[in-house]
Amino acid sequence: MSRNTIRLIIVLGVLSISGIIAVQAYWVKRAFDLQNQQFRQTVMVALRNVANHISKAYKLSSIDNPVSEYSSDYYVVNLRTPLDEQVLEHYLKEEFKRNNLKTDFEYGIYDCDTDKIVYGAFINANYEADAKNPVILPKTDKFLNYFGVKFPERKSYLTSKLDFWIISSFITLVVTAFFGYSMFVILKQKRLSEVQRDFINNMTHEFQTPISTIRVATDVLAQQKILDQPERLKKYVNIIRQENNRLKNQVEAVLATARIGKGNIELDIQLQEIHSLIVEVTEGVRAELEDGLSLDLKAERTSIYADRMHLMNVVRNLIDNAVKYSPKPPDISITTKNEGNNLVLEIVDKGIGIPREYVSKIFDKFYRVPTGNLHNVKGFGLGLSYVKEIVKSHKWTIEVDSEYNMGTTFRIVISQST
Fold it and tell me: Do 73 and 214 fall within a single domain?
């Protein structure tokens, strides 16, 4: 599946899901508004009936529009006479049952003498009085005698009426999450496929070079006249030995990365002297780099606990990496210093650097920074991944500071605390 096809699928999927969510949200809101309107109408009818019952009980003429909506959850009902609390509660329960209003409510009666609403009671959804702390119901100056009814659980009551929409919304969210996860898996598989392809291409190229060199060398050694040329014989034997070691190192790099990935790495932690280890590692490359490598070993406390072999590989990998991405002749420096209870090892080059957008990816397995027109950079993309895992296994930290076309600094902070 091509990258453009995946992008098209993602765009169409996002648009489709966004449309579904928008339509779902619109209809949920419409359903809620409809329930709210129905609730309001039911309350108005029920309270109007309560007012009529009270008017008949007190032999008063009915009021045309006795009910006023003070707020979405609070209603006041106009009366022309003081009212008994028990009579009001009886008619409220009766009418709310008749209109199927199964929700909590509170009521209060306005008292002219105190100019306050006297709290009546809290009635639960089963139409039973419930002990609750009295609340102060709002007053109004529109009426002389009135009572107020408040519905504190109005929103919960309306929401409970939207079971179908809530279930459908949940299903929509599940579908959205499944789509997002599917896109994540597709992109991840696509990336892994590309990484695998690049790794196989790099590995094929890296293996072909020493194999071809060994084949040429063996063809030369197969000639009878080579026995009469000891210097030339020695040269080609050394070539075969070097290329064989190169193949061995490449295979070991792949196997070491596989072991680290499975968590099978075992460290032989012992007390090491960092400066002597650095000198030992750099001896092998000094002849090749000549004046391109400098050491500035300023640390005074140089003893650390580490796995000697893996630490040497870490330093060697970082030096090789600096050489790969530096012009000829390279300019590489290795420094050490103490910072508190830590020893800091820095490997600095003045090579092509790493663009900012790639810095966070350089420790990913098989990842190689795009080098534009630079095609002579070899490797599997395993070196820095290996370095990161070894540093992590030692409970150290590694930092990268790079500026494009200016160079790169790798900084390993090694704990010396016991």
Answer: no
Residue 315 near residue 386 (C-beta atoms within 8 A): no
Same domain? 153 vs 224: no
In the chain, the number of structural domains is 3
State how far the Cα of 47 lies from the Cα of 108, in Å rounded to an integer: 13
- As beta bridge partners, residue 250 has none
- In 80-222, the DSSP E strands lie at 105-111, 116-123, 129-130, 145-150
Burial of 110 (0-12, 13-18, 19+ CB in 10 A): buried
359 to 352, 356, 382, 392: CA distances (angstroms): 13, 5, 15, 18
CB 365 within 8 A of CB 326: no
8 and 156 co-located in one domain: yes
Rg (CA), the chain: 41
Closest CA to 243 of 283, 215, 277, 224: 215
Whether 278 and 339 map to the same domain: the answer is: yes
**Residue 129 forms beta bridges with which residues?**
123
Query: What are the tens digits of pLDDT across the range 346-378?
Result: 999 988 888 888 888 888 776 666 655 444 445
Question: pLDDT, tens digit, for every residue of 55-95?
Answer: 888 887 777 889 999 898 999 999 877 778 888 899 999 99
**Full residue range of the structural domain in which residue 320 is found:** 269-415
**Which of 261, 293, 324 represents a domain boundary (last residue)?**
261
Asked whether residue 275 falls in the same domain as residue 362, the answer is yes
The secondary structure element, H or E, covering residue 342 is strand 342-349
Token output for 273: 């002297």
Which long-range CB contacts under 8 A does 290-295 form with residues at least 24 apart?
290/329, 291/329, 292/326, 292/329, 292/330, 292/331, 292/332, 293/319, 293/330, 293/332, 293/333, 293/334, 294/332, 294/333, 294/334, 295/333, 295/334, 295/335
